[in-house]
């Protein structure tokens, strides 16, 4: 149980982020649902959390903006006094073969997926260090482990998240702060719904367990890493991918 804990989940208006927010709230954490442009979706997540007996609030911030992240976290600390769990879930894709990939699409994906995680960790670390406690869970991807054709930008960003996780885990471990990553495989979300049936069939053949993942599969892993049960785990990458990365 996470009673008394406050969790900040970035990109929590839909998909995996929403499932994470819902599951943390179901385990009695107060959840700050961060969003960038999807205000209605974020408020819907908050409404569903409250309807289920939990508590949450929505907060807008573009995590790719360093100063905006600083302002958001400063205001949240001022209002709520502490944050105990940071989940870096916000992510975008701009898929294209490398030879046709635009520079701005590479930069946008790196800016949100990797630098966004750095931005929030950088600003949260000072408060975690003062508390001498905190849980950071970064959402990577099987694409960051195996690579994926047509996703040079996304794969690079998610591989970078793994490196960031391990480096920060070493830096902060002495103050009782745990830093881990979850690497989802092929999960049913709006982001994967746009894939063609042929692509989906090919991906399914790569999954030893023989099924696609559900957002709840990822959420349960995050809740575990945020809980006291994972107090002696840091610097690790938990693949939740049905065996794709074996």
Q: Which features would summarize this protein structure in a list?
A:
single chain, about 250 residues, alpha/beta, seven-stranded parallel sheet, 9 helices, about 50% helix, globular
| Structural class estimated from helices and strands | alpha/beta
Number of helices: 9
Secondary structure: helix percent: 40-55%
For the residues shown, what is the average pLDDT? 96
The rough form would be described as: globular
| N-to-C order of helices and strands | EHEHEHEHEHHEHHHE
Give unreliable regions as ranges: none
Number of strands: 7
How much beta, percentage-wise?
Answer: 15-25%
What is the distance, rounded to the nearest whole angstrom, between the alpha carbons of the first and last residues? 31 Å
Strand order of the largest sheet: 3-2-1-4-5-6-7
C-alpha-based Rg, rounded: 17 Å
- Main sheet overview: 7 strands, parallel
3D architecture notes:
The protein is of the alpha/beta class and about 250 residues long. It has 9 helices and 7 strands; from the N terminus they run βαβαβαβαβααβαααβ. The protein has helices at about 15-25, 40-50, 65-80, 105-130, 145, 150-170, 190-195, 195-205, 215-225, and strands spanning about 5-10, 30-35, 55-60, 85-90, 135-140, 175-185, 235-240. A 7-stranded parallel beta sheet has the order 3-2-1-4-5-6-7, sandwiched between helices. Helix 1 runs parallel beside helix 2 (about 40-50) and helix 3 (about 65-80) runs parallel beside helix 4 (about 105-130). The chain is globular, with a radius of gyration of 17 Å. About 45% of the residues are buried.
